[in-house]
Amino acid sequence: MPLGTLPAMSVWTELGDRVFVRRYAFYDQNIVAVRGDDGFLIVDTRVSHRQADEILSDLRELGSQPVRAVINTHGHNDHAFGNHRFRPASIWGHARCARMVRDTGTAQIAKVAAAIPGLADELAEVVLDPPDRTFDGDSTTVEFDAGGRAIELRYLGRGHTDNDIAVVIPDANVLLAGDLVENGAPPYFGDGFPIDWPVTVERMVELATGAVVPGHGDVGDRAFVVRSMVEIREIAELAVLVHGGTISLEDAILRTAYPADAAREPIERALAQLRGELD
Ligand SMILES: [Zn+2]
């Protein structure tokens, strides 16, 4: 989405016991900090070292403890390319998130630098530093003392990428959804699996018992997750109709919940998946 179209919250907002969200104007992105007994856990690290340093500086408003653990919700640049500034913290993520950072990181940097030339200098400083605490199954528990609470990482299936995870903080009743859902703009489908995506978000609905923090945009709730699921399912269903020859691509684009100029990529990506081109 265009930068700065929504006002950023310039403060940490406590959503649940010692679970704080801060909304940055760049990409309208949400960063979450959990204050534990001997330090902080940070979820997602922004696009560059300078942006990561901004998180570290803002974190001082919450206390002087070090960052002990970091979680990457997936391997996109704005969620993982500030990682290196948080070492020696352990960095958690899905195994394919680590692979995505490793294998596509340089290409992601080139793409963002081409789209936003003013960011090229700071992107050139990025040291790619993929998660070292990875898991490949359905879930894992982060080794971090979050004030006596367990923090769970759940892999729910392919969606926005093949490595999105949801972060569940049960006692605070907070769910961090990464980019599986976005508030205020259609999510990015360019690396997505639109046929699987609605099923993945459906699995997330039951986890959404309280506040739901998307990777970008307003904090929502279960109804927001359901709404997102319906919109993404519509993309998959329209693509099936195009694939079967029932309607044209142009008709499908006009029938989604998204603005027409934002609907082409999702439908085309879904068609590519239906043609078997993504496996
Ligand atoms: Zn993303």
Q: Average pLDDT, to the nearest integer?
A: 95
Query: Level of helix content?
Result: 25-40%
User: What series of H and E elements makes up the topology?
Assistant: EEEEHEHEHHEEEEEHEHHH
Low-confidence stretches: 1-7
Bound molecules: zinc ion
Tell me about this structure.
The structure is a single chain. With 279 residues, this protein is of the alpha/beta class. It is built from eight helices and twelve strands. The strands form two sheets. A seven-stranded mixed sheet has the order 1-2-3-4-5-6-7. α5 runs antiparallel to α6, α6 packs across α8 (260-274) and α7 (249-255) packs across α8 (260-274). 48% of the residues are buried. Residues 74, 76, 79, 160, 179, 188 line the site of zinc ion.
Give the arrangement of secondary structure elements.
Layout: E1 13-16, E2 19-24, E3 29-35, E4 40-43, H1 49-59, E5 67-71, H2 77-80, E6 90-94, H3 95-115, H4 120-124, E7 133-135, E8 139-141, E9 152-154, E10 166-169, E11 174-178, H5 197-205, E12 211-214, H6 222-243, H7 249-255, H8 260-274
Helix pairs in contact: 5-6, 6-7, 6-8, 7-8
The site of zinc ion has 6 residues, from loops.
Quick summary of this structure?
The chain is built from eight helices and twelve strands.
Top keywords for this entry?
279 residues; alpha/beta; seven-stranded mixed beta sheet; five-stranded mixed beta sheet; 12 strands; 19% strand; globular; disordered N terminus; binds zinc ion
